[in-house]
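HOLO CASE FILE
Compound: zinc ion
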Amino acid sequence: MHDQTIIVHLHATAPTAACPQCGTAGSRVHSRYQRTMADVAFGGRNLVLKLLVRKWICPQASCSRHMFAERFPEVVQRYARMTDRLIKALQAAGVITNGADAAQIAESFGVPTTAKTIIRRVLQLPLPSEGSVRKVGIDEWAWKKGQRYGTILVDLEKRRVVQLLAERSVETSKTWLRKHPEIDLVSRDRGKLFREAATNGAPQAKQVVDRFHLQKNFAEALEKFFRKQERALKKAMQRSTGTTRSAERTAVPEKVAQERRARHRQRVNMHKRIWKLYRQGYHKEQIAQLVGISSRRVYRALEQETPPPPRRRSRSSSIVDPYLTYLASRWNQGCHNVARLYEEIVAASDIRGRSGRFRCGCVPFVRKSHALSPSRPSSGISLLRPEALRS
Ligand SMILES: [Zn+2]
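Model generated. Tokens follow.
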């Protein structure tokens, strides 16, 4: 025993050993040598086996194998530096967790190893067979979001992943689907790629749009619809609250207006360029790279075919406006009591009796103190003035 290591010396006692080439049992030992291998820990200590291996002489004169070493197929494989049971234990830990965690767990049990070893061992495991799949779900998965995608295939009945394909293309998906003529249903998104793959790869199968994408598309359609109705919604809201927001908008200096128009032109040109590339058949990620913007912006632009309207200043007046600076400083001083703030400014103002609306005006402050993320600017449905959140 050395510190944290227990060394066990072993040797086989069988009087004969069968030649792996011809099967004849040899009984004459030519020489011996030692093999060293790691085993599962013993009492929290690293266990090392020193196995004395005999080299036998094959008695069969015609055998090409004159000498052979004895083997222990149930304990350790040829040339292996670990016993079978240790490899199995590392694989099990690696499959359940991951390389780094499994290495740490093994270490704590007295088996020093590395994440790399664990991963190598897990990769040696045979892949589970795909079996037969009747109902399959197909979608993309990201190697790296926005850059490289693969394809995932799920057995919808057994609720398990059947296959991960390295790329997302009609060809690879089609090839895989063709290998499974038993498929009678393909659940997919509404994109062209998987539709084409399913049509050509599994013509016998019924195609359905999966619930996730259906809901996603529905939500997108609703959002698009309401975005278009922004003005109508605002008007309806004003009518229902009985307030007409004072239309007085501070006049915009010509230079500012010019810059605004230029920025809008840029946005429209970008929008047109994205749609043009999209119609030419480029993927969203490819467009993002070509145009030099994030793929998120491409996705947003493709939500709506009409170019974006000029951004309207969403600022509208509120009864709190004249006191914003005062309120902000009081808020920062630590006074978060809305009733008290109301009392403080009511003396010098005409908002007496309108504490309800005053409270409304204060909501952005209260919200901000709760560290809520700012609502989307001028979404039309928002009752709060988002610019106050950014102040
Ligand atoms: Zn032989």
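CASE NOTES: Residues 88-123 form one domain. The pocket of zinc ion is lined by residues 19, 21-22, 24, 58, 60, 63, 65 (CB under 6 Å).
CLOSED: yes
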